[in-house]
Structures are given as structure tokens and as C-alpha cells.
Amino acid sequence: QLVESGGGSVQVGGSLRLACKISRYTMVNFCMAWVRQAPGKERQGVATMDPDGTTTYAPSAKGRFTISKDNTQNAVYLQMNSLKSEDTAMYYCVAIYATYCPSRPSAYTYWGQGTQVTVSS
After folding, report:
1. Count of CB atoms within 10 A of residue 18's CB?
2. What are the residue ranges in the chain where pLDDT is below 70?
3. Measured between alpha carbons, how far is 64 from 104 in angstroms, rounded to an integer?
4. What is the structure's pLDDT at 23?
5. Which of 2, 33, 61, 114 could form a disulfide with 57 if both were Cys (CB 3.0 to 4.6 A apart)?
6. Phi, psi dihedrals of residue 66, rounded to the nearest 5°
7. What CA–CA distance (Å, rounded) separates 41 from 54?
8. What does the alpha-carbon distance between residue 36 and residue 91 come to, in Å, rounded to a whole number?
9. CA torsion sign, 110 to 101 to 66 to 43?
């Protein structure tokens, strides 16, 4: 089970830190990722982290967002800085038992309930 927190409303240029707590499983052997979906748009991969810690970012997130994890807390985080209005979306923590993270959001097995991020000017 994945439970996200940390979403909210922020002004353009602000920051938010999303958290995802994992229960029932240890995430050590899981690929963890963040996916977002804006109203009327398809789901978009934002950031991924392989079990070995390798990270990837969507071009829109690179340089502004940072994915990290704490194995002792069994949690993964997404630090979002310099937020833009186009970052407004529901953000989901997702996971799959795999060595390498898939690029397609639909490939992920486990999904959280989502946390809303709203960026306004």
C-alpha cells in the first residue's frame, strides 16, 4: 500500500515536498516513481528511482524536481522547486517489483491514492 502526502496549493515559484510511505512491503527491491495527471491530460511520468538508486526525470522536471528515498523509513519523496502553473496535477506514487523502472505509467503495479498539487500565479 502506498500513501502520499504533502500536496497543497502554492504560488508560482514556490516549493513542495511530496512523501510516499510504503506499507506491507519493503521497497528495497522495488522501482519507485512519481506520476502526475492534470485534468483532461494523460498520465505523465515525472521521476523514477531504480532499486540501485539510479534516477530519471521527465524533461519538464529536470533541474527542478528531485526524487529521493529513505530505506529506513520505507518512504520515497519528491522535492519540487520553482513550481510552475503547468505543474498543477494529481501526483501519484507508484511502484513495481523490478530492476529497472519502466517509462510507461501504466506499467506500474502499485498506485497510491494521489495527492493534489495546485500552483497558482
Report:
1. 24
2. none
3. 21
4. 87
5. 61
6. -135, 125
7. 28
8. 4
9. negative
Three cell numbers written together for 72: 529506513
Report DSSP letters for 48-117, one per residue. Answer: EE-TT--EEE-TTTTTTEEEEEETTTTEEEEEE-S--GGG-EEEEEEEEESSS--SSGGG-SEE---EEE
> Cell numbers 502554492 label which residue?
10
Residue with cell 522547486: 81
| Residue 23 DSSP label | -
CA atoms within 13 A of residue 84's CA, in its CB half-sphere = 7
Distance CA 55, CA 106 (A): 19
Spatial separation of the C-alpha atoms in residues 114 and 21, rounded to whole Å: 12
Residue in 6, 1, 23, 2 with CA at minimum distance from that of residue 90: 6
Residue 83: all three cell numbers together? 513550481
Residue 118 bridge partners (DSSP): 9
The residues that bridge with 96 in the sheet, in sequence order, are 31
pLDDT of residue 42: 97
Please write the tens of the pLDDT for every residue from 29-53.
899 999 999 999 999 999 999 999 9
